[in-house]
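agent: user wants the full assembly modeled, not chains individually. Plan: 1) parse entity lines 2) check alphabet per entity 3) run joint structure prediction 4) return tokens. Steps 1-2 passed, two entities, 250 residues total. Proceeding.
--- entities ---
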Amino acid sequence: MQGLQLCADLHGCRGPLLTELPALRALLIEAVQGAGLSVVAERFHAFEPAGSGVTGVVLLAESHLAVHTWPEQGAVTLDLYVCNHSADNSAKAEALWQTVHAAFAPQQVDLQRLQRGSVTMRSNI
Amino acid sequence: MQGLQLCADLHGCRGPLLTELPALRALLIEAVQGAGLSVVAERFHAFEPAGSGVTGVVLLAESHLAVHTWPEQGAVTLDLYVCNHSADNSAKAEALWQTVHAAFAPQQVDLQRLQRGSVTMRSNI
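--- prediction returned ---
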């Protein structure tokens, strides 16, 4: 369970990724695969009326990527957690984050990095 | 997008919630509903072979609840993010966390509380 979690709040975003479910889904799944992480399932939901925002998750063998968009605010939140079950996946997480960041092209980002599973990590030392 | 996020690492957990998808799914959905939050979609996945762990997410009108179990470690991670789109949902998030915490009955917990959307929050002041 030990691993890196990125929690990013993106501001000043525009474009179809904030409102169109198929476009957002395609971006995230391709970014996951491009980073060498593994999709095990996914689920997305577009709020009504159309254009209200999209929420979704890609479940990974390495944990999850969750996204929520607020088109009226030009805002997006991203949560990416990758556990290091078989290898250190931090570099893959950072690569995925760079791809998604480039696609949304936010004017401002608030990014928090967490270490998960630290109790187990300490107990293994 | 402004709201509370709870990231919890649970250690010393036992029982069917770590390995049985239907039991884990039922717990989380009932806990969400009991806390007064709204399910818009959900997706769960059980890793092979049976007993290897379960991963899943409940997508909320208020954002998401994600869970991953590691039965071989007796460990669970929970991520709960509730945005305050129409009201302050922090108390509902804390109530949900208490329900889930009681169900897993961990021997040890590492809980991190994040405030999301802080840039927007500051810009609104």
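agent: reporting back. The longest strand of chain B covers residues 3-11. The domain at 3-112 of chain B is CATH 3.60.90.10 (S-adenosylmethionine decarboxylase).
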